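Box S1 | Example of a co-folding query
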Amino acid sequence: MRNPTMSTIVIPLFLIFLLLLPFASPAPRISLTSHSFLSVEDDSDILISQDKSFACGFYEVGTNAFTFSIWFLNSKNKTVVWTANRDRPVNGHGSRVTMRENGNLVLTDYDDTVIWSTNISSTRDQSQLLDTGNLVVKDKDGKVLWQSFDYPTDTLLPNQVFHKNSSLVSAAAGGLLSSGHYKFYFDIDYVLILIYDTPEFDSIYWPDPDHIVWDDGRSGYNSSRSAVLDDMGKFVSSDNLTIRASDLGPGIRRRLTLDYDGNLSLHSLNESTEMWSISWVALSSACLVHSLCGRNGICVYTPTSHCTCPPGFEVNDPSDWSKGCKRKYDINCHKSHEVKFFELPHTDFWGSDVNGTLSLSFRACRKICRVDRSCEAFGYKKESGKCYPKTALHNGRSHPGVDNNIYIKFPRCVETL
Ligand SMILES: *[C@@H]1O[C@H](CO)[C@@H](O)[C@H](O)[C@H]1NC(C)=O
Ligand SMILES: *[C@@H]1O[C@H](CO)[C@@H](O)[C@H](O)[C@H]1NC(C)=O
Ligand SMILES: *[C@@H]1O[C@H](CO)[C@@H](O)[C@H](O)[C@H]1NC(C)=O
Ligand SMILES: *[C@@H]1O[C@H](CO)[C@@H](O)[C@H](O)[C@H]1NC(C)=O
Ligand SMILES: *[C@@H]1O[C@H](CO)[C@@H](O)[C@H](O)[C@H]1NC(C)=O
Ligand SMILES: *[C@@H]1O[C@H](CO)[C@@H](O)[C@H](O)[C@H]1NC(C)=O
Ligand SMILES: *[C@@H]1O[C@H](CO)[C@@H](O)[C@H](O)[C@H]1NC(C)=O
Ligand SMILES: *[C@@H]1O[C@H](CO)[C@@H](O)[C@H](O)[C@H]1NC(C)=O
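Box S1 (continued) | Returned holo structure for 2-acetamido-2-deoxy-beta-D-glucopyranose
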């Protein structure tokens, strides 16, 4: 005899299954083959690595604005490690990443404009996100034709080779992905540097510009220009730079990121709290980053770092200190040829020196700046008598440990001082 309970159970279960089917989200995919695509509307439409540590797909950067990015799956907030065409987000409707028949992986906006493409041509390819966080396009024989590891944005992952054409570019601000002005790359002398870089002004701030590179154990002899972070947390570069994570050892997920504030740091993921901690930094203090406070601005430590303007100056944009400070002009006074100097002890504005002269008396140094129309200020080191007349005030920093005084030139009639 038939068991009646069986059908009474099976039928409702079957109905429930049918009801749920249209609402089930697609399982994350592990590869994209010809003609298949990811669409921006469905945030579960992503590609994940086999070990489920990385995902790639559309990442929301603003209202109705998305980028095609790769992020860590196991960190509290999606931590993005790579972005395609980071300065050109796409619309939240109709945008797609498509594996085209010609082998190209292509990001298109709502109106089908191509925003980014791997620019390869081959046939029967597929895209895959590897466990290393590397997005690759492979041909049918498994040969890698394109990989995201060759185009880092602001982050380097373990086993991602950094070479002479590579650079990391910081994000423009915290929480943004678009490009900022800090850069990390191999300079022409084969040494890895950190630089503030805009068309108007650039300035290297690491390795310490007051040292010669050898003082920091760096070497310009090896022209191979390559560096890599290994699975143990050790970063070794051809310029003899070696970085060791404070938690050196296997089994920890790490990333080397040039943060929006110009700090290059190694971050380690705590998989139970899903939080990042810093396991190495290039600069121990924010004020060592150049241009943080803009032209004429001064970075001070009290005890955390912040920006101020020198006396006689005012901030250009209080919401963005990188725009610096301007002179508070006294209209009646600007024609005066008589000048005076205002002393800022333990302060330096690194760079923009006319020249550097040793063993000069303070009065002789002051005279050089007084008679030179282009001189805005001078730096003077009392111990060595070093004199630095300056044509502009950049990279300002004030700290008891700075063995340099700055003397800013003003028309004598300026009364606010
Ligand atoms: C995650 O993002 C939220 C909202 O943006 C923010 O408040 C929080 O501090 C972030 N958490 C971490 C660990 O970054
Ligand atoms: C593809 O080619 C376009 C136009 O030549 C270029 O702007 C873009 O950067 C290239 N994309 C990649 C990933 O190299
Ligand atoms: C670096 O760029 C040059 C010119 O763009 C190219 O010929 C060379 O293959 C690149 N090197 C590497 C290691 O990608
Ligand atoms: C590389 O660094 C090590 C230790 O930091 C130092 O002993 C060695 O002389 C350096 N090599 C070169 C070529 O500068
Ligand atoms: C130059 O650097 C590369 C990469 O770090 C290394 O493999 C090579 O041995 C170095 N060459 C010399 C002469 O030190
Ligand atoms: C992760 O964080 C928890 C809580 O703060 C801590 O107890 C644990 O030791 C951390 N794990 C590692 C590997 O640092
Ligand atoms: C770099 O990171 C260290 C450690 O978190 C911090 O003390 C320092 O202020 C940071 N520097 C910048 C430029 O943010
Ligand atoms: C530095 O520049 C000043 C002003 O132009 C000039 O008088 C002085 O001779 C220069 N010193 C050296 C060492 O070139």
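The pocket of 2-acetamido-2-deoxy-beta-D-glucopyranose (ligand 5) is lined by residues 222, 224, 226, 238 (CB under 6 Å). The chain has a mean pLDDT of 88.
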